[in-house]
Write a structure and sequence with these properties.
The structure is a homodimer of 397-residue chains. Chain A has 397 residues and is α/β, with parallel strands linked by helices. Helices cover 40% and strands 14% of the residues of chain A.
């Protein structure tokens, strides 16, 4: 072109995923790199009759435009089923459907973040939250974590020292990438701090139900007395991600902004997929389904932990996540996980994700994220064995 | 709350739809207010077997995450079927799936529009484009239309006098709200002006196939030699809007930005709905379906035009749209269509949309948009008869 395209300034902050790697798609790769649920566990045969029922009896409305909020009946089911299980007493008026909880993060940026506004994240945090929010050009403030999640004393210190904090983004349950869960006590404190300092908390809860040791944790929202917490829930990990069905629970004043943002962005989620979810939930139990998924993933979690203990050098720190999809390795500080992950993929045909892009400032390089939801136990064993040989080499033992 | 929520500055420009009216949902209302396709024409019975096939044979992948670009096979079908019919020789690498073409408009704003950037629109233009773009705070420049669409001499004059024009947004085919179609000659000129002045054209083509008198018009994109035209196509009006399936056709350099924007916003469209569209298109013909829809809507168009001629005062100007969903009334300049529409809804139980919000500056008040796609012929006749009595009253005859 003779002329040059004039892009918006913000488009320079659009970025391709830092964890995509074409190598990972090759058929002989053993992959710990995914963030996906196990495909064979989808209820596809149950959905044949469900789809037939929806099309034959609601065909006209199920394929038509519907409302931006989402179908009332589905929001009612979500309120009575999931939100109640999370300790939140709510109703359809406090819920809106989203095209994946990713959309909730992006719209939070649109609604709450001006250029330079301060946004607090756990360090490390979910990579997709950076992708969603970076175009709104926030100033990241990071809070450290320990085995009980985000450190509340550090958070309060930051809140005291900074005005113009617009938002705290957290994945309290079996966080992506670390697998860490926030303690109940800290959830209470987080809700209290949000109210005290007048800061919105975006609680992203895709893995909340996938708890393998004991009962799920109450949502931060369950301790929210003044309405500062915005909770994102999703069907992706407990039903089917392909439907792109998620929801936001928030005060009506906040929900109204999300509704207007969604109206401008894409009007609504898929009416048909909403109807499938409704009809499936009327016939089957989401609680039963979650129980089966927990059995499946618990066994994989146990396997990966056993194999890491068996095959990895002792010096490597890793956790035994109580739930979710991931475990997180900490290597020696002078090691660069990006090089190790590259070498693992090329030489050993094992894919895993180096931790660097999960840090807001990409400044820590000695972590690896391992997924155990999308890989069977035999492959877990073989993959960890191979990784182990490479790591032993690096540690010189 | 003791504290006040701190919103982003842009959130003050989020707006609820200016054409929503709860009255319109009441069961006895005859509605010309909709923008929907006819529900009974959806292929819901055909989709029963299609859904069964997809679930039984592709159940695992059809319910899983897939790519942000959209499934390759679907993009190939779109290239070979629709884009070819629109005179555009293209391939899957130039196509990306979107959650409705509304998303394409919003992402155009995200990618091309800085605060104060100039965006050219037809006057009037599609209301949803304002909703999508206003949050990015553009400076609207408006171009008048006549019966051949956007006036090209006026457009060139504006392009000469203004730098920092980022984007020209147009609905060339049977425009919402006016029903006007842009002539072939002007489409060529538009593509040439875009290249000459280095300005992106966003061509929004939801009604392009719904042409009731003769063949569809070639897309503006078909005259685009240098890649300045971004074309948005959609399954909503020719298949089912509930699936939220649309596409963008653009140069790879541009598409890459849309891909990153979509990744941050909601990752992808519904994998399941994509698979339904693929399987349906393999079994049935979209061209045949479009032909049937044209027969249905042509007949409704003929009816509404006949009734307007019969029941409306002679002084009212309206058009006989060659396609699409809408016709557009122009009342006497001193009349306020907002009042008339209110009166029609309350007293006559007839819903129609006043034209004011379709103008970028909300400064012209004597138009009414009438939809004829979502109302049967008997109801069209009764509704236009009732509107006619009110209009005769207003015109004092």
């Amino acid at each position: 072109m003779g002329n040059q395209i004039k892009w918006a300034e913000r488009s320079s902050r659009l970025e391709a995923s830092a964890i995509r790697n074409k190598l990972f798609d090759e058929p002989d790769i053993l992959t710990f790199a995914a963030g996906k649920p196990e495909s064979s566990a989808f209820p596809y045969m149950e959905l044949v009759d469900v789809a037939k029922e929806v099309l034959e009896h609601k065909g006209q409305s199920a394929l038509q435009y519907s409302s931006t909020d989402g179908i009332y009946e589905l929001r009612k089911l979500i309120a009575e089923d999931r939100m109640k299980a999370w300790g939140v007493n709510t109703d359809p008026e406090h819920l809106m459907m989203l095209s994946g909880s990713q959309e909730g993060i992006e719209m939070s940026g649109k609604i709450f973040v001006d250029p330079g506004s301060k946004v607090i994240v756990e360090n490390p945090s979910y990579l997709g939250a950076y992708t969603a929010l970076r175009i709104y050009n926030p100033h990241w403030l990071t809070v450290g974590m320990d085995e009980h999640g985000m450190k509340m004393d550090e958070l309060e210190d930051i809140l005291q020292k900074n005005d113009d904090v617009r938002m705290i983004y957290t994945v309290p349950d079996f966080q992506n990438p670390t697998g860490v869960v926030m303690s109940v006590e800290r959830r209470k404190q987080l809700a209290q701090l949000a109210a005290k300092y007048g800061v919105i908390v975006v609680e992203d809860r895709p893995y909340g139900d996938l708890c393998y040791d004991g009962d799920p944790y109450p949502a931060v929202k369950s301790f929210d007395e003044e309405g500062w917490v915005v909770t994102l829930g999703s069907f992706s990990k407990i039903f089917c991600p392909g439907f792109r069905l998620a929801w936001i629970c928030a005060e009506p004043e906040i929900l109204q902004k999300f509704n207007m943002a969604k109206q401008g962005s894409n009007l609504q989620v898929s009416t048909f997929d909403e109807n499938l979810a409704i009809e499936w939930m009327k016939r089957y139990s989401l609680a039963d389904r979650i129980k089966k998924l927990c059995d499946l993933y618990r066994s994989r979690r146990d396997t990966i932990v056993r194999c890491m203990e068996q095959y990895f050098p002792e010096e490597i720190a890793f956790n035994r996540p109580e739930g979710g999809f991931f475990t997180w390795l900490t290597l020696r500080e002078d090691m660069d996980a990006r090089e190790i992950a590259n070498e693992a993929a090329m030489k050993l045909r094992v894919a895993c994700i180096p931790g660097t892009p999960f840090y807001a400032y990409n400044d820590i390089h000695n972590n690896i994220r391992l997924n155990f939801s999308f890989i069977n136990e035999e492959t877990i064993e073989e993959g960890i064995r191979r990784l182990g040989t490479l790591l032993h080499e690096k540690y010189g033992c």
